Amino acid sequence: HGLQPRTSAAHVKAMQMSTGMPSDRFPPGADYMSLRGCANEEPDVVVWSLRNFVRTDSMDISNDPRFFTPNVLDKRFAAFSALSICSTLFTGTALKSCFEMEKDWDFMDIDGVMHFCGFVVLNVVLFQNVLASFTSVAQIYLTYRLMTAGPTGFEIASSFYLNPNIAFWRHAAIKALLLSLPLFLLGSAFRIFVHIDREMPGPPKDTSDAHFLSTRVHGVSMLACLVFVIWTSVSLLLFHIHRRHLTIFKERYSIAMDAERPLLNHVRAMSERGMRPEF
Fold this sequence. Notes:
Blueprint: H1 9-19, H2 32-36, H3 45-49, H4 72-100, H5 110-147, H6 153-161, H7 164-199, E1 216-217, E2 220-221, H8 222-275
Antiparallel strand pairs: 1-2
Helix pairs in contact: 4-5, 5-6, 5-7, 7-8
């Protein structure tokens, strides 16, 4: 792994500018540790023992002007970064909800069944957001690392971004995050049903003057049923909104591709014609 890094042309220039000494004092290929005179540049015992598991070298650093130029990957990852923030927050919220829920489920009782259903749904939400958080952080880090690898960094990063495996997990992460929002509301609906049903008082002795919401049918609170129906309806509404967004997006994307295809074919044909040898 090159435990003692050697100087490159960039290192020589940097050392010359920082010390004011001529460049012949810093020949290329010299020991960089001795140039700096810093003993901490040498790997310690921990790094030496773990060198087979974690690399001790890194990619070369070149200050290419193209690194500071905005590109399409920056635009796409800006939106991806916003989604990663949401997934991280939902991961903590779903994990906290799963740990705080009571686990004394009685499957012979409606409250026990509803409580267990809420626990299962919130676990699905947790796993979806863990996938989204990991994928977003990993892909953003690796893509930008490849983008700054050198003069061809953008092309290499683009090939990584468009790789079918990378694209699959990126799309899966985005879909998991968007679907976790209505699922989180659905899981909360099961929880709020149990809380209301357990905390509502029993039926009054004189039911003739009792309000509808304070009554129970087969031991189930009507207020709990009403709140559960409202929360579930909003969750289904979010599913519908998600599907409508995807449908319209795919329609507009198809229109854009159909509109530009003739132009791209014409440009490609002209390029091939210009490459033919003339006799």
